[in-house]
Design goal:
Pfam family, one: HTH_31
Shape: globular
Keywords: DNA-binding
Number of domains: 2
Structural class: alpha+beta
CATH topology of the largest domain: Jelly Rolls
Radius of gyration: 16 Å
GO molecular function: DNA binding; DNA-binding transcription factor activity
CATH architecture of the largest domain: Sandwich
Protein name: Transcriptional regulator with XRE-family HTH domain
Distance between the termini: 39 Å
Order of helices and strands: HHHHHEEEEEEEEEE
Helix content: 25-40%
Largest sheet: 6 strands, antiparallel
Organism: Streptomyces paradoxus
CATH class of the largest domain: Mainly Beta
Number of strands: 10
CATH superfamily of the largest domain: Jelly Rolls
């Protein structure tokens, strides 16, 4: 893709973010105050001038009371009962090296979802809050190693390990493997 072309997913995501802000009746300034993200960054994301980072999307999901999967499913086509591997939407945070595949067929009425995630070596993503307070997450390491910090507790996970946690505060995901890490994330909304 040429650098002057807008990624179609980023364009749909930007439009949905603008819709959500409008639905809430907030100005860019009000959203900036609620999310802790600058007005200019919010504006650029809504206009798809930049691809939003995972951290930015997490902050906006927290303000809007959605999981990242819910938000991303809102910019995809009408959900099917079965999503074949080739049709599973993939989103990438090009800044951090985080690649996220939505494995579960999306549906707004379902509470659970499966996500395959990949982090490049050295990736370090900190979320200052959960997208939804009390969100339950199961992290199963398929390949590599991952350090996960929930509030003040650090967990070192290796291939085959699985961590279950309820997310109430800040979390951090650090790729501890020189070859990167691939894991399955099961998310259950409260």
């Amino acid at each position: 893709m040429r650098s002057d072309e807008t990624d179609p997913v980023d364009a749909r995501l930007g439009a949905r973010l603008a819709e959500l802000r409008t639905e809430h009746g907030w100005s860019l300034g009000e959203l900036a105050e609620r999310s802790g993200v600058s007005r200019s960054t919010l504006s650029r994301a809504e206009r798809a001038e930049t691809s939003p980072t995972a951290s930015l999307l997490n902050r906006l999901c927290a303000v809007y009371g959605r999981t990242m999967s819910q938000l991303l499913s809102e910019v995809e086509a009408e959900p099917e009962a079965v999503v074949r591997s080739a049709g599973q939407p993939v989103w990438q945070d090009r800044t951090s090296g985080f690649v996220r595949r939505s494995v579960s067929p999306p549906h707004p009425a379902l509470r659970g979802e499966l996500v395959e995630a990949r982090l490049s070596p050295g990736t370090d993503i900190a979320y200052d809050r959960p997208p939804v307070a009390g969100l339950e997450q199961h992290i199963w390491i398929l390949e590599g190693a991952l350090d996960v910090t929930e509030q003040n507790t650090e967990h070192h996970l290796a291939t085959g390990d699985c961590l279950r946690m309820r997310v109430w505060g800040p979390t951090r995901f650090r790729c501890a493997a020189p070859e990167g890490v691939r894991y399955l994330l099961a998310v259950v909304r409260p």
